[in-house]
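From: lab user (bench 3)
To: helpdesk
Subject: output format question, protein + cytidine-5'-diphosphate

Hello, I'm new to running complex predictions and I'm not sure whether the block I got back is the full result or only part of it. Here's what I submitted:
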Amino acid sequence: MKKLRIAIDGPASAGKSTVAKLVAKKFSYIYCDTGAMYRSTTLKAMRLGIDLHNESKIVKMLESTEITFKPSEQGQLVFIDGDEVTNDIRQEDVTNSVSTVAALTNVRSILVKRQKDIANDGGIVMDGRDIGTTVLPDAEVKIFLIASVSERAERRFKDNAEKGIHTPLEELKKEIELRDYKDSHRKVSPLVKAKDAIELDTTSLSINEVVNEISKIVENCQK
Ligand code: CDP
Ligand code: CDP
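Helpdesk reply: Thanks, we reran it on our side. This is the complete output you should expect:
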């Protein structure tokens, strides 16, 4: 069977990582969360007290930083230089700063190169903002997931509640809108649907329904 490259892009909380993981499992493919790479870069820079607009310092830091993934019973674990940071990279301060770091041209070129290397052998589901446009422009399957801002804020609200975090819904909505705005308006590889991507509106779809839709597209491509 042909080992495909599946690109899943879209705005914050559209369901990309949840669905990407399940599609990867179904086809026994690797899953690569590129957002975790931008989050890890941001977390390390914050811990080192580097100004998040200081591109040359962040680039220098990143060149000697190893970001790795390891599958586990609890899902995929993320490591910076061997230290586990899976939960730390999801903290609100990282979430609210990551778009600033992700807008830095030379940070993107380093991470995009690493992402291309990871996807080199195919059999991969990669999710992010610029996978179908920049990282894997020749991906056999390109999906662009969207959902209304209200639905996405509610999804994040529920995720937070499970972790004991109670940020008001309106605040989450504003954070999501601001991050989408920054991600869509940056100069380098902004969040945009690739011309040949299939758009799926997940506002009123369950996770299983989205996985089934994508699986049908993948199976058609494998024929
Ligand atoms: O899961 P969530 O939607 O919160 O975001 P994420 O996928 O973890 O990505 C976090 C941030 O990293 C995004 O808001 C973008 O600023 C940046 N990102 C990017 O610029 N390009 C990617 N391929 C992936 C993430
Ligand atoms: O990766 P991204 O930020 O696009 O979203 P996510 O972290 O995969 O999904 C955010 C939340 O939405 C998770 O709790 C998912 O379980 C939930 N979700 C949903 O309720 N319905 C869907 N069709 C997809 C995701």
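A quick orientation on your result: The two ends are 9 Å apart (CA to CA). Let us know if anything else is unclear.
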